[in-house]
């Protein structure tokens, strides 16, 4: 399989059909431009897997009506407060929620990347999370009958969507300090990458970059997306746009405001978003 | 010496970390994060702060903090709750009938695992009211105690609030008042707590941070916590990243 190169994030996400499951990492680079492209396309019924937690990207996709199921360990806007669209949608029953805990989601993806059916995990016993997750099973430790562990099913997202600082023309993507982006790509059926920059040099030939590089083997398609994490930060490139996040929080408080936010900053002209 | 409510909580929490070699700090935890940095400034050890970009507070990625705790390499961690009950069960998920809760909070994050794994988990919540401290949580995101036979090297150690410090007795599954913050009374704590707790014969007053401690909090601690918690550092200490 050759990595496909797309014109922009909109072309990249056209591969994602309604109802697909998508995995998005909690931290930089958060694929905000790819998420905006999904909203512009009017995609519906997505199953969002936050790895392992979600923030603005989850709240935006939920607020835009793209999501029917959220599988998450938690969604919050951090110091800015609760995620308003997430809370609204859970309360109204508009989205189905599969509550998890951070290491559970990581372990489930690790099972998928190894091609094994499940992964055992400590903790969870006696929680209401476990009580509400029939797909999580309490089993005996096969090596010690007196010990119990929770077995988690492998989690194989249809798509991993990641945003990186650098990709190359061969389809290699440099993930920097986020090894979890590699894990997501290994686990997913298909990985779509947006990149701040696309270089002519092969990243895997660079001794200092190669270890933190996702090889093209796992990258189905790449699109350039300068400032693709905006208004969130991209380390080494730009900081969080705190003023814009304030605007988001104010507008997202009510559904009317959210609709106007999406018109102005997502589906409207690109000038308005800058 | 004048100190703020947050500074008093930071100082009280830091004293609960004596002897810890590695303290980890999760999300939405600016006061515990500051306490961990204060304890480190006084007595050394390592601090890992999820969300910090400063190299000295990084772990080997997001998965690693859980693997690290699973091996027993994390001595202390902090958790809070929308509700916390007398058995130290915490609810980070919401109130009402699950899943369409009347009030939905962010979610369990790593609590359902770390509460089991980390030996010294310190609960914190500035708001000390019956809304928070309930007889029984609506949803157990992470349980305070576990049945015999459940692998559980970790669990609750203490609770720090805007009114007092309590210690948790795991064998009795019960909190005991340790100290009242200056100006607070036992009656006030009882009136604002929805569960019963033990009261020792002598309840001391929470020690107010001295000049040395305050200058550490307002200096290096404020500077470093600003990286992960810029809004907190700005409003509490007037420090920018």
Structural write-up:
- The complex is a heterodimer of chains A (274) and B (241).
- Chain A is an alpha/beta fold.
- Chain A has 2 domains: 4-100 and 156-266, 3-Layer(aba) Sandwich (Glutaconate Coenzyme A-transferase), CATH 3.40.1080; 102-153, Defensin A-like, CATH 3.30.30.
- Chain A has helices at residues 9-13, 32-41, 56-63, 84-92, 102-114, 128-131, 179-187, 207-210, 242-252, 255-267, 270-273, and strands spanning 4-5, 21-25, 46-51, 67-72, 96-99, 118-121, 137-141, 144-153, 159-168, 173-174, 190-199, 213-214, 221-224.
- In chain A, strands 1, 2, 3, 4, 5, 9, 10, 11, 12 and 13 form a 10-stranded mixed sheet that branches. In chain A, strands 6-8-7 form a 3-stranded antiparallel sheet.
- Chain B has a single domain (5-237), classed as Glutaconate Coenzyme A-transferase.
- Chain B is globular.
- In chain B, the strands form 4 sheets. In chain B, strands 3-8-10-11-12-13 form a 6-stranded mixed sheet, with helices on both faces.
- The two termini of chain B are 27 Å apart.
- Chain B has helices spanning 5-15, 30-43, 62-70, 111-117, 186-191, 211-228, 230-237, and strands at 22-25, 46-49, 76-79, 83-85, 90-91, 94-95, 103-104, 120-125, 133-134, 156-161, 164-169, 174-180, 204-205.
- The longest helix of chain B is centred in the last third of the chain and has 18 residues, at 211-228.
- Chain B has 241 residues and is an alpha/beta fold.
- The chains are: A alpha/beta (274), B alpha/beta (241).
- At the A-B interface, helix 4, strand 5, helix 5, helix 6 and strand 8 of A face helix 3, strand 7, helix 4 and helix 7 of B.
